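Hi X.,

You mentioned you wanted examples for the new student's onboarding notes, showing what a folding record looks like when two proteins sit in one file. Here is a clean example. The first protein comes first, with its sequence line followed by its structure tokens.
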Amino acid sequence: MTVYVDLVFLTNLAVDGTVLLTTAKARRLRPRRRRIALSAGLGAVYAAAMFMASVPYLYSFGAKVLVSAAMVLCAFGYGGPVRFLRLFATFYLVNFATLGGVLGIAFLLRQSGDPWGGMTFTPDGGLLLDWRLQLGLFAASFALSVWLFRSASSSAERTSRLDALVVDVTVTVQGESWTCRGLVDTGNRLYDPLTRVPVLILEASVWKDRLPAGWADRLRGEPADKLIAELGGNGDDGYAWGDRLRLVPYRGVNGNTKLLLAVKPDSVHIGRGGSEARAYNRVLIGLDGGSLSPDGSYRAIVHPDLGMSDSADAIPSQPA
């Protein structure tokens, strides 16, 4: 078998450089490119050296770990033991993920009538697997594995950031309580213009059984003042929550002023991760006719005054 050392060096240079850049992306670092190139060159030289020198201990487990540590130090610096260990673990995680993706794709594309055709047993009981992968297919498989890893990492990071803003919301009206998940939206600055009471947005479907017939669906396309007018001049007309209904003006994305249907609750309890909840009395519940979350992970948009600060209107309370 003919081995081209220069091809081995260039392949490993590209692979190590990509792995190091993916590691930096996963740890949200921006190292200098020359440090990445130097570190990748170190790994490529180490890979090519096995075909140029016969030094058994050079390719032992300890030597491989030392070379990997040197590559991480060269690319990202030290910065303390905790930082280094996190970078070192991420570097190996990226290596395992991308190599596993390459082997998985190679196995998927492998065509053989004999499942044992690619296996060889050595005299001492060892097992050798024959993985033959053309350079072009290897490059495509490796690129796909890196893309999948980065996509999964980005998705996990977004989910983690979102979870940090998700709270438990319990709304109480006339002795009845409804609990759902809510997202704290720092850009939501909606107040009632007269009382300066913050407005929490809730999917109308949560109260579908407590609203007048059809309101939960009609709120998607019909103005709120039209629905209020149907109840009568005083806004109640026998409806149990009639005296709690409010109309809150707000400015839509197109700049037009609209009216939001809101309900005055008895209280709203907001907690996070089983911690002690806080009870808010001065709050309005604005009703949205659509779905606030594409995946249903939350059904309320929490005003930042309620979900992120210790408002003067809040009093400590046990979770409802």
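Then the second protein repeats the pattern, sequence line and then tokens:
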Amino acid sequence: MRYLLQRLGFYLFTAWAAVTINFFIPRLIPGDPVQSLIARNQGMISAEAMQSLYVLFGLDKNESLISQYFDYWGQLFRGDLGISFTFFPTPVSDLLTDSLPWTIILVGITTVVGFAIGTGLGVVAGWKRGSWVDGLLPVTTFLSSIPYFWLGLIALTLLAGPDSFFPSSGGYDPGTIPGWDGSFIGSAIQHSLLPALTILISSMGSWILGMRNMMVTVASEDYVTVAHAKGLPERRVMVGYAARNALLPSVSGFALALGFIVGGTLLVEIVFSYPGVGYQLFQAVGSQDYPLMQGIFLIITLSVLVANLLADVAYLALDPRTRKEG
């Protein structure tokens, strides 16, 4: 319990630091976002209206930076991430509500499936060296070394086209009304197949290689030898003794991967014009939409922290040594 409380305190401090940095970075960037918004819309407004925009965006020049900082914390506690410059006057929280499900479903499912398949194959490859599974390592290593956006471009070239089953862009067919009906869900699944396949192929190889190497190391440990000497079934020794201990380093990597699910696989979403958080971040950077960038960075940071906290809890369950004091 003490270990868990220490880790929780560390993550709370890290979250405070992330929120603080997230507040100051946009205010250190040169330029005036309100003036940029007015110029982009080619409008002329009064001084009072301009001052109202500064107050609306939390950039009131008549208020001290410390006051703005505490106001920003108050906004966060109310769930207010500000107003988007690009999609003015749409709140950032509404934009994230629209894009987050796309990224979480696409990247989340592929990350979990890739980890499960890769770890399972890595266990078999490390335990049964020289088998056909072990022979897949050169192929998977080669595929994982190719950048995933390059795999996406290859997939678009070879598999997508006017008469192809695989769409080349978007999250669903034009004209389809989003909703929980068979037409929309089928269209969304069809549009997600190529991006999901790209992410799955590029990520699975690293899980296989990492788990295989850990299994080779753990297989020579004394407790595995003792388990064999006791006459325990081969499957039980492989899963309950070797794989359980070899899995520990992969838990941290999996937690980080889960944390970055929210950020999406940026380049894959750009290649396929997929309406997730990564593609939205690309649009925000291109249009200098500071509140939207700020909201996305904050959500990604907090997601990584929560994922790492869950990894620490998993360590407590998997490794008894972390539960011992001193």
